[in-house]
Task: inverse folding
């Protein structure tokens, strides 16, 4: 219900979003409950940034699948998205970090307003191309020491995020995920015995 409120999801569509979260949980190392917890914490920022609910779920999933607890993942995501979206208002160090990537603040903000998910992916790919030492310095300039290691982990394993995006975007495979899982569990011997006992 909280996620429906944050992302403005009509009641009729909430099950399909549940299918996305369930399918991510089934295909990655993140648990559905962890994804939901992180989404609850990042929902407002992700929506303001312009991410679709599926993209937000994939981003949360990737951080958690890489070993970050939901609260750490959410704090890092909120910091990253809010600083990127307000790039022109950030510090001189932040501007130096952008310059090292060959990006200008206004250009980044415009890219986010046109296609938030695409702008985020492109930004992460620019960071991925840097060698480890340079990347650590640029991430520190951009997001501070507090988050450079968390975001650095994501950038260093960008395949995990892209995998999550692919899973979350496959509407044909996702549809009915929760119902299928329920049917599978309902068909187990233990469940049949429990039903018989009832």
Result:
């Amino acid at each position: 219900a909280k996620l429906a409120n944050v992302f403005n999801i009509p009641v009729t569509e909430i099950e399909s979003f549940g299918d996305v979260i369930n399918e991510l949980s089934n295909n990655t190392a993140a648990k559905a409950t962890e994804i939901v917890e992180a989404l609850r914490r990042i929902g407002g920022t992700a929506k303001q940034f312009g991410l679709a609910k599926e993209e937000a779920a994939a981003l949360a999933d990737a951080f958690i699948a890489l070993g970050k607890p939901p609260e750490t993942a959410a704090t890092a995501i909120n910091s990253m998205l809010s600083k990127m979206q307000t790039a022109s208002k950030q510090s001189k160090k932040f501007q130096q970090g952008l310059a090292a990537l060959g990006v200008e603040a206004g250009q980044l903000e415009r890219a986010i307003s046109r296609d938030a998910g695409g702008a985020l992916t492109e930004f992460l790919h620019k960071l991925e191309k840097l060698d480890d030492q340079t990347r650590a310095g640029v991430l520190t300039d951009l997001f501070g020491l507090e988050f450079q290691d968390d975001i650095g982990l994501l950038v260093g394993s960008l395949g995990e995020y892209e995998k999550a995006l692919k899973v979350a975007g496959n509407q044909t495979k996702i549809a009915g995920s929760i119902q299928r899982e329920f049917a599978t569990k309902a068909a187990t011997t233990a469940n049949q015995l429990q039903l018989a006992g009832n």
